Amino acid sequence: MREQCRFIKLKTYLDKRGALIPFESEREIPFEIKRCFFIKPEGENTVRGDHANLCSEVIICVSGSCKIESDDGKEKKLFVLGSPDSALYIPPRMWKKIYDFSSDCILLVAADERFDETRVINSYEEYLSVLKSE
After folding, report:
1. How far from 103 is each of 7, 18, 65, 66, 106, CA to CA, in Å?
2. 111 backbone dihedrals φ, ψ, rounded to 5°
């Protein structure tokens, strides 16, 4: 059975100064982090993702909220991100579509590989073909 998307609860430390939410490679994040980037969407109809990566990713909603639809070629699942203490793990070869961003949404994405455009599947038909060949 293929690995599925899942939430990772990040521990929050609260005091009178606010919140501290740490995470580390191979502890809370189930892999060694090789790349991080932010997504700051523009416009209410923005769609990000809409592709599959051949690497693992963790997405954290630092501010605001959004929806993420995962698709393993057989089943689609909907996840709502809206708190920086709840990260979404996305395994390799999982189609994802990120949408319905609040106006203040900022996402932090951590990946287990450096960027390589040959390791991204941008066509859903090609994605289904890759899955059939596994």
Report:
1. 23, 23, 9, 10, 9
2. -130, 155
pTM exceeds 0.85 for this model: yes
Residue 81, C-beta contacts closer than 8 angstroms, at least 6 positions apart: 59, 60, 61, 65, 66, 67, 68, 88, 107
Distance from the Cα of residue 83 to its chain's centroid:
14
Instruction: Give catalytic residues, as residue numbers.
Output: 51
- pLDDT per position as a tens digit, 66-96: 999 999 999 999 999 999 999 999 999 999 9
Number of H helices and E strands in the chain, helices first, is: 1, 12
In angstroms, the first-to-last Cα distance of the chain is 12
